[in-house]
Design goal:
80% of the residues lie in helices and 0% in strands. With 203 residues, it is an all-alpha fold.
C-alpha cells in the first residue's frame, strides 16, 4: 500500500512539474532557465548543458579603453618600425652603390698613377741616357771649349753634367769657368751631396 501511495505522489509531482514547465514556457521563460530552477529544488532532475563553448565560439572579445589604447600604440609602433626598416634598407643600398663608385674611381686613379710612374720611369731612363751621352761628348772636348758651353748653360744642366764627368776633367772645366758660374755650380753640387736638395729641385 505504501508503494502505491509513493507512485501516486511521484506521478502527481511529475504532473505538477510538467504543468509548471508548460505554464512558464508560455510566459516566455526558456527551458534552460526552467531546468535550472527545478535542479535547484531537486538536484539532478535535469542534465545540465555546457554552453560556454557555444558562447565563446560566436562572441567577440570586447577590449577596454586602456587595452584599446595599448593595442593602437603597439600598432603605430609597428608601422613606424616598418618605415624605419625600409629607410635603413634604402640607405644601405645607396651606401653600397656609393662604395662601388668610389672603388671604381680608386681603381682608375691607381691605373693612372701606375701609368704616370711608368712614363716617368721611361722618361728618367731616357734622360739618363741623354745625360750620359752629353757627358761623354763634353769629356772628349777640350776643357776650354767645354767651359765656354758651361758658362752659357743653365745651372741645373751644368750641375748634372759636372757630377757625372770624370773628376779630373770636371776640375779642369771648373777652373776655366767664369768665377760666379763656377761658385754657383759648386754650391749646388755641395747642397745635393748634403741631402739638402734633389736633382729635380736644384734650380
Amino acid at each position: 500500500m505504501s508503494g502505491a501511495n509513493a507512485l501516486k505522489r511521484g506521478s502527481r509531482l511529475l504532473f505538477v512539474v510538467l504543468f509548471v514547465i508548460f505554464g512558464m514556457t508560455c510566459e516566455g521563460y526558456s527551458m534552460t532557465q526552467i531546468k535550472g530552477w527545478v535542479n535547484k529544488i531537486r538536484p539532478g532532475t535535469f542534465e545540465t548543458e555546457d554552453t560556454t563553448s557555444d558562447i565563446g565560439a560566436g562572441a567577440q572579445k570586447v577590449y577596454s579603453e586602456a587595452e584599446t589604447k595599448v593595442l593602437t600604440s603597439l600598432k603605430q609602433r609597428e608601422e613606424e618600425l616598418k618605415v624605419k626598416e625600409a629607410l635603413h634598407e634604402q640607405r644601405a643600398k645607396e651606401l653600397k652603390s656609393l662604395s662601388q663608385r668610389i672603388e671604381q674611381k680608386l681603381d682608375q686613379m691607381r691605373r693612372l698613377q701606375a701609368d704616370i710612374e711608368t712614363r716617368q720611369s721611361k722618361r728618367k731612363e731616357l734622360d739618363e741616357k741623354d745625360i750620359s751621352r752629353m757627358v761623354r761628348y763634353y769629356e772628349t772636348m777640350d776643357p776650354e771649349r767645354t767651359a765656354i758651353f758651361f758658362n752659357q748653360m743653365d745651372r741645373v744642366t751644368a750641375m748634372h753634367l759636372i757630377m757625372r764627368m770624370n773628376p779630373r776633367k770636371a776640375s779642369a772645366v771648373l777652373e776655366l769657368l767664369d768665377p760666379k758660374v763656377a761658385v754657383d755650380i759648386t754650391e749646388r753640387v755641395t747642397r745635393f751631396k748634403q741631402g739638402l736638395i734633389e736633382l729635380s729641385d736644384a734650380k
